[in-house]
Amino acid sequence: MKLTVTTDGIENIAADLLALPLSKRALEKDAEKALSGLGLALGVLKDFKADAGEMTLLYGTGGKCAAARIALLGIGEGNSPDDWRKAAGALASKAVELQLSRLGADLSGVIPVAGVPGHSFLQLASVFVQGCLAGSYRFERLKSGKLEKPEKKKSPKKKKEISELILVSGKDDASLIEKGAAEGMVVGTSRNAARELVNLPGNLLEAEDIAKAAKESGKKYGFDVTVFNRKEIEALGMGGLLSVNKGSFHPPTFTILEYRPKTKASKVVALVGKGVTFDSGGISLKPAEGMGEMKSDMSGAACVIGAVEAAARLALPVHVIGLIPATDNMPGGTAMKPGDVITTYSGITVEVGNTDAEGRLILADALTYAAEKYKPDVIIDFATLTGACIVALGYSVAGLFSNDDGLAGEIAEAAELSGEKVWRLPLWDLYAEQIKSDVADVSNTGGRGAGSITAAKFLEKFISGHEHWAHIDIAGPAFGTKNTGKTSGGTGFGVGLVIELLKKWS
Ligand code: BES
Ligand code: MN
Ligand code: ZN
């Protein structure tokens, strides 16, 4: 999707679809004038309510307007970036559905609301472009088209992609809108790259493919990527990752992405992402129903790749290290068994109460390695860690855990800006009682109660006393299925949040 910002009059925008964003207020005040100026009948305003994401398509402007179609695009009260995001998403999704190639949007009437976080020309332009990229994303690469009806096959396969997004800006605001839109392009495309990885099934994305994806991104956008293979992981003694990998036909990988800014870094930030390419549960096998969704158990890894990539592309003045332990979790004659005791990279021994609590085992190694090797200012891990987090917070909200109130607050603010919802849960020591083991230093299961908190308490034991750590459990929001109120498939959750956070520290 090519991006153009213009200060041309909207009547001159030769788009296939030109959107006029309207708030409820503007609907009352200015809509009539705008519509009649474009030669459009006003009757339509009777039904249009300007709810966020609501859209009415209009045709036939009697030659007054160069665009083939006009969309009245509701942005609700117009004072929330989330409404803008939603509106842009609905608009772009419609454009893809209609197979339209050139999409325009009039941002010249935008009035940023003072005092609302995220409400500036720059930020709204970024949000709008991100919304367009999110709404136009489709996972199509595994569709061969061979079973399409013959008449469809004959006509050259139309690509369902928007070729150009044209933003119309007021004269005074063009440079801010340009800057915001360019940033939105980076975040939106890196997020979609993360979604693509999440959507790839287990047979097409093994641990080595995660490493490869990181390498390709590093090469393209100029950051370093190091991959440890099985031998190197063994030499390091990463017993968590190796144990989870024991039942697998495919070797594990441990990938390190490192972006160093050209200027002096304001902070060193380690991002750890769970990279389980498929989670069958192992010997503690999951039920068959919905097991296929566990191809998304590497969403934390995808988030980390997308975030490091976007940070590098935006040349943010932060030193970012991404760490990704990756494997699938499979049963088999050589697989890890319930009752096994394993020794992690830290030397801490773990009794395996349940082989399906595998994410914390591979994260344990990565967290210790991050803390000890890089001594970062901050460590944040992203993981589809517990079903319990979905029980607690549902499908659109991530669980946030941190041993640092300041960091938790900053993450919550960043999440507010990025439109990704997080909610903090406690890390009180009383919960650690549940993961005591009779035979080892700690158990990887904590029983039925407070499953996402006991998982976080487990991780906390492996950060080598680091005082600025946060764990974000993205089991709910990382992946959409039917009836979750989200688009289906990978969401790229976390990429925008990390970028907002790094911008705060810039
Ligand atoms: N990957 C799952 C968690 C998950 C569940 C993510 C549903 C997304 C949707 C994780 O590895 C897991 O299996 N956790 C277990 C832990 C339990 C065995 C202590 C769970 O949540 O049941
Ligand atoms: Mn599991
Ligand atoms: Zn898992």
SS strand fraction: 15-25%
Number of strands: 20
Mean pLDDT over the residues: 96
Number of domains: 2
In this entry the ligands are: ligand BES, manganese (II) ion, zinc ion
Oligomer: single chain
Under CATH at level 1, the class of the largest domain stands as Alpha Beta
- What's the CATH topology label of the largest domain? Aminopeptidase
Question: Major β-sheet, in short?
Answer: 9 strands, mixed
Overall helicity = 25-40%
The CATH architecture name of the largest domain reads 3-Layer(aba) Sandwich
What's the CATH H-level homologous superfamily of the largest domain?
A: Zn peptidases
Structural class: alpha/beta
Low-confidence stretches: none
- Shape descriptor reads elongated
- Helices, by number, come to 15
Distance between the termini: 28 Å
Describe the overall structure.
With 506 residues, the chain is of the alpha/beta class. It folds into two domains: 2-138 and 161-187, Leucine Aminopeptidase, subunit E, domain 1 (3-Layer(aba) Sandwich), CATH 3.40.220.10; 202-505, Aminopeptidase, CATH 3.40.630. It has 15 helices and 20 strands. The chain has helices at residues 24-29, 31-37, 81-97, 121-136, 150-154, 174-199, 207-221, 230-236, 239-245, 299-313, 359-374, 387-393, 405-418, 451-460, 495-504, and strands at 2-6, 17-22, 55-59, 69-74, 102-106, 164-168, 224-228, 253-259, 268-273, 275-279, 319-329, 341-343, 349-351, 378-383, 397-402, 421-424, 442-443, 469-473, 479-480, 489-490. Strands 7, 8, 9, 10, 11, 14, 15, 16 and 18 form a nine-stranded mixed β-sheet that branches. A six-stranded mixed β-sheet has the order 1-6-5-2-4-3. Strands 12-13-17 form a three-stranded mixed β-sheet, with helices on one face. Helix 4 (121-136) packs parallel to helix 6. The longest helix is centred in the middle third of the chain and has 26 residues, at 174-199. The radius of gyration is 24 Å and the shape is elongated. The two termini are 28 Å apart. The model has no long low-confidence stretch (mean pLDDT 96). Ligand BES is lined by residues 279, 297, 354, 356-359, 384-388, 445, 451, 475.
